[in-house]
Amino acid sequence: MLSEDLTTRILAAVDAQFDAQLERTAELVATPSLRAGEEPAQDLIEQQLRDLGLDIDRWTIDSEELRAHPGFGKPTVDYSVMTNVVGTYRPREESGRSLILNGHIDVVPEGPEEQWSRSPWDSEIRDGWMYGRGAGDMKAGLIANLFAFDAIRKAGLELTGRVHLQSVVEEECTGNGSLAALLRGYTADAVIISEPEEDSLVRANVGVLWFTVRVSGNPTHPREMANGFNAIDAAYEVIGALRELEEEWNSQRGDHPYFEDLDHPINFNIGGISGGDWPSSVPAWCELRVRVATYPGTTADDAWAEIVRCVETAAAGSEGVHGSRPSFDVRLTPDGFYAEGYVLEPGSDAEALLEETHRAAFDRELTSFTTPGYLDGRVFVNYGDMPTLVYGPVSESIHGFDERVSIESVRRCTKSMALFIASWCGVREG
Ligand SMILES: [Zn+2]
C-alpha cells in the first residue's frame, strides 16, 4: 500500500478534478448510445483518451475469431457500425503490474419517455444524484476510470505498470465487445470493471442466454375458430413451461456456492411478445423474446439443451385447448447473450488490495455479494483467467425510469480506484 503522503496527494487530486469529472460524465450521459448507435459517445471517449496522451486503438468488433468463440452471442444488428476504443499507457520502463480498466458505452432502451420525470438524456444533477439513461449503468463508472487514472499524474506521479482503458460496446445484449477486446490481445494482471455495484465487490454472477421462441398457428376466420390454431394462446403454454423450469433451477440454488442464500437468483424474463396480423384472423404466429439466467459452471450449451427440451416437450404434449391440434410447432433461436456466469475466487492479491483502498476511500470495510445479472467479468475470468474486480458506485433504477447515480459514491469509488491503480501498477515521482 502507498505511503500516507502519496495517499493524501492522490485523494486530493481526485477532489481537485471532481467538478470536471462530473461535467464529462454529464456530457456522456447526454449523448445517447443505444445499441448500434454508440459511435458519437465513443468519439467523446476517444477524444478524452487522446487528451490523456494514450495510444489509441479503435476497431470494428466483427471478426471470424469472435464468431467462432464459445462465448460469442449471436447478434441481430450490423457490427460494421460499432467500434471498441482502447487507450493504452506504457511506462518508459515497465516494472509494475499491468491493469485493465473496463467499462461499457452501450445503454439499454429508455422506454416510454413520458414516464420519466425529465428527458432520459438531460443528465440533470439533483439532490446528490445524476439522472439519465446510462448515468449509473455505466457512464459514471466509465468516466471514473479515466479520472482515477489521470489523478496519478495530477498528483505529480508516474505509473510504472501498463494500463489499458477500455470502452466497449455490446455489454447489455451479447458481451461481444469485451470478448472482442480479449481476442484482440488485451490481457493484464488484473481487471477493474466499474459497474454500478453499490460500493461493493461482485463475488459471483449468473450466466445469461437470450432467445426467441416462434409458435406457429393455423389461421382461420374466427367464425370457425375451433378449426384453427391460436398461436398467441399457445404461447402462454410456452411461458408456463418456462416458468416451471425457472422454479426448478431456483430450487437447485443450494448446490451452487454464493447462491444458496438468495431468494430467487434465476430470473426468466419474457422481454418481448408479438404475434398475429389483425383481430379477425386466428393468429398464425407468435414470437416471445426471452432472457434466462444460469448458475456459474453451467455451460451455455447445456443450459440451451435444457431450454429447448422444456419448450419442445410442452409444445408436443399440449392439450389442444387452443384449436384443432393436439400439439403445436415451435422454433427456438438464440439471438443475443450465450454466456456462462463466473465466480471471483477469494484470495487474490487484487482483492486484498481493493480491501485496503476501499477502506482508505470509504472509511469502512469492503463487502462482496452475488448478483443475478450479466457482467462482462465472465469474459476476463472464464476466458482470460484474470482476477476481475467488478466494483462501482451506488445507483437506483438502472434499466428503469429516472435512472440515477449517487455523486458522493462516484467520488469515493474514483478515489478507491485511483489508489488501487497507483498501488497495483506502482508509481515514481514524475
Ligand atoms: Zn452495466
UniProtKB/TrEMBL annotation:
InterPro entries, A to Z: ArgE/DapE (IPR010182), Bact_exopeptidase_dim_dom (IPR036264), Peptidase_M20 (IPR002933), Peptidase_M20_dimer (IPR011650), Peptidase_M20A (IPR050072), YodQ-like (IPR033687)
Keyword Hydrolase recorded: yes
Keyword Nucleotidyltransferase on entry: no
Keywords: Cobalt, Hydrolase, Metal-binding, Zinc
Protein name: ArgE/DapE family deacylase
The Peptidase M20 dimerisation domain, residue ranges: 204-316
Gene3D superfamilies: 3.30.70.360, Zn peptidases
Domain of life: Bacteria
